[in-house]
Design a protein that fits this description.
Blueprint (H helix, E strand, L loop, with lengths): L3 E3 L8 E5 H13 L2 E5 L3 H15 L7 E5 H13 L11 H9 L11 H9 L3 E6 L6 H13 L3 E7 L9 E4 L1
Helix pairs in contact: 5-6
Amino acid sequence: MGGIVPTRETGGAGTLPMTSTELSGLLTAVRRSRVLTVTCGFRAPRSLLVRDISLRLSSNFFDGAAVVALEQLEQWEQLERSGQPEQSEHTTGMRELVAALGRVPGMPFLPCGTANAASWLAERDMLLVLDGTDRLSPEALGWLRALLARAPGLRILAAGRHPLAVGQGRVHRL
């Protein structure tokens, strides 16, 4: 029986909400699935878990892992528009998602335009981590579906209150 798994972040307090045996099964599921969503009513545990998984698995993918924090992206956009954050029902669209991919630290600059970004990503062997997927627009979800069809080496690990609606995918509930 495994114990509770400590976080891998330096200076971070807390533990992952699972045993080492459960984490091992989840790591295997991420490697084998095209899409896996971690769901939970609370943002912090699911966000912590997907970020830890991306650190653990990035070396399993030739192009590594890219973490896109969609909730943080929404806050940045609100600050740019109004100068202060606010609570809204804003959804993240396809262009915002592609722009966020271009701002991921350590990731090469993406070509301009969503069609070019999809072509660029289609050639990658990578783990794409989407943290906060609840507010993705239907347009962005459609783009992700098309991207999965074109990119055989792409795996998506999502975190949200609900499963990512991009077709068949596995769900892990915390």
